[in-house]
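Sorry to interrupt, but I need a hand with the structure work. Could you add the entry underneath, on a fresh line?
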Amino acid sequence: MGKKDKKFKKWPLKIKKAKVFKQFEKHQLIHRLGFVAAALIVALWVNTFVLNGQYGNQLKTNVLESSAPVEQKADIYLEKKEWSDSHIMSIRAWDTLDQVETLSLGIVYNPEQVELLDTFSNINGLELTRIENTPWVATLILTFSEMQSISAGQEIANFYVSKQEKLTQHVNITNANFTDGTSTNYQLTTSWMTF
């Protein structure tokens, strides 16, 4: 080490910050604090007005916190009823169907495991026709003697099914539609049942 190196170690170089740099650092600090304050205000606003307001239930993904209905059924859906060793499936309407003249739907099932035994309805003035051209699809045609409205949740028809083994099976409703008094045909959404 030379004399110059020892001299620098003995007296470290002191640098004074210029006034401009001090103002710049002060401005950056104020800017950062302002940004944090604005973020807190926005977070509180979102939490108060959005998440706890009318849009909050639509945004929540936790089913326990959401008060919106969890399940929206199809226009025509199946409901299972247990009775002895057979299973009764009930075909129901989710919404009201007005001025129904005819209602048709297909029931699709696995013919190797499931057997469709009997189909019936408790609605007065109804002729129920069951057509099975293939062993896995049954078509039900319900013809009303007079135009009739089917109310929401009303039981339209029932059918008995049995299954060979204790395996999970599916019964599907397909191609559901109804014709009203003006001969307009309406397509309906459908669902399935696991049993």
Summary: The chain is about 25% helix and 45% strand. The mean pLDDT is 78.
